Each structure stands twice: as C-alpha cells, then as structure tokens.
Amino acid sequence: MVKGTVTISTEDYHSFLDASLKSLAVREDLDLAIKELQVFLSFLCTRSDIENYIKEFNRQSKTSEINISGSIAKIELKI
Questions:
Q1: Dihedral (Cα; 17, 22, 24, 29), 10-degree rounding
Q2: Nearest 5°: CA angle at 77, between 71 and 79?
Q3: 8: phi > 0 → left, psi -120 to 50 → alpha, else beta; which?
Q4: What mean pLDDT comes out for the span 42-69?
Q5: What three-state secondary structure class fits 66?
Q6: 9-18, 30-39, 48-57, 61-70 — which one is most confidently predicted on average?
Q7: Cα separation of 39 and 11, whole Å?
Q8: Residue 42 CB neighbours (<10 A)
Q9: How many helices, marked H, and strands, marked E, lie in the chain?
Q10: How many CB atoms lie within 10 A of CB 41?
Q11: Average confidence (pLDDT) over 45-60
C-alpha cells in the first residue's frame, strides 16, 4: 500500500462529511423498507401461493433476492 497525503479545501472536506451522513441516512431508510417488505411478503405467503412469482422476481432482479423459509420472507441485497 502506498502512503501519501492529499490536499483538499475545507469546503470539499465538509461536502464529503455531509455526503457520508446522507449515505448513512439512506442506508437506514433502505434497511427499514426491507424489514417492512419482509413482513408484508411473510403475510402474503400465508395467504396464497406466490412461489412462482417470487422465482420470477429473483430471476429478473439485479439488486435483491427474496428467500422464503416456511412462512417467513427475507430480502437480501445482491450488492
């Protein structure tokens, strides 16, 4: 690994800090949305046969995959 220094302006440094905070907030929102969707999918699994739809979703999705274990749904990110 090469060690060195980089000089950036204070304004750019604060922009990086702000972007980092926004990224964390977006990740928290995404995690909450995933949990809510898992609960909804788990509910659907107990009400109807959606296995074929989930297989098709998983085949087409580039960013996530739905896994069903019994009546519990889990959404996993592929990234």
A1: 170
A2: 160
A3: beta
A4: 86
A5: strand
A6: 9-18
A7: 43
A8: 16
A9: 2, 2
A10: 19
A11: 85
Sequence spans of domains, the chain: 10-77
What's the whole-number mean pLDDT along residues 5-11?
93
Burial class (CB in 10 A: 0-12, 13-18, 19+), 12: exposed
Q: Of how many residues is the chain composed?
A: 79
Token pair in block for residue 70:
């019994």
Say if pTM beats, i.e. exceeds, 0.85.
no
What would the two tokens of residue 24 be? 């964390």
Percent of the chain with pLDDT over 70: 100
